[in-house]
Amino acid sequence: MSEREREPKLSPDEEQWLDRMLQAPAPIEPSAALRRAVAEIPLRHPRPIEGSSVADAPTFGGRSVAALRYALLAALTSMAVGAWLGYQGDVLPEVALEDSAQTEDEWEELSLLAFADELEGELEP
Amino acid sequence: MSPAYLDVLPAVLAHAGGTSPRATDALVRADDDALMLQVGRGDPQAYRALAERYLAGIVRYATRMLGQQAEAEDVAQETFLRLWREAGRYEARGHKPSTWLYRVAHNLCVDRLRKARPESVPDEQLASERTSAPLIQRELSEHVTAALANLPERQRAAIALVHYEEKTLEEAGLVLGCAASAVESLLARGRRSLREQLAAFYRDGDGR
Lengths: 125, 208
Hints:
B: 208 residues, 10 helices
């Protein structure tokens, strides 16, 4: 005889009574706060739409490979920008010198204006 | 709703060919599968459709398991967060998405029960019913809730899934990770235990 057959069973009356008893507890409903929190999960935990990421593009393969390629790309870009700035650095000082090629007279005039050395004379009646 | 979801429905309707319970079940199943696929692709509308459909059931189940609605709501929130994050890894393998959700919730409940103190007292909201309910009804509700809480974890889970969530023995077995015959045995033991605990309320002929 199997274990299940040995187990005493409830009578049909008891079964029906128990089914009714199990209906006694009040219905359980999720709270409004929970409904709101669950509905907001996609907003609070945004996920990229599949296929929208560059990493998903066929040429980039898997995500780990894509991450390595991103790093390599960033390094190459930095080097290229650095090289370009270095080249520009050789050119910029000359441009700066041309811009600042003011005469001594112009500087003197600016100093007079700034320090108002001759202001007293101008204020005299 | 998403185009893939709309694509599936006519085929299911044609296949189901009516509104019998089996046809309805097939319709819901295909619907759920399509929604799950869309959630896996990051579609928030599909996620909300599944949440709307199963949130109440998950909260009911977790509350029956934990005896406290506040804690059950934490479990429900975590369950739906996992749905949103991990639906992409969901593989049907003959299981319904709802079964997957209940299994996640069940595992979270078991984790909490094992961490929690042994004497978990059901909260007042669950035990005392609505204040407007008649006294006898409230008292009865408290006794039934307490009797359920006294059951061993797996017997309680079997009764909550089959009796309250109307799962089949096979579905309950998938949630609990056991065979349908084992669920049947858990149910029989659980019901016998409830009958003994609630004996004071039973009189001969009550079933009729």
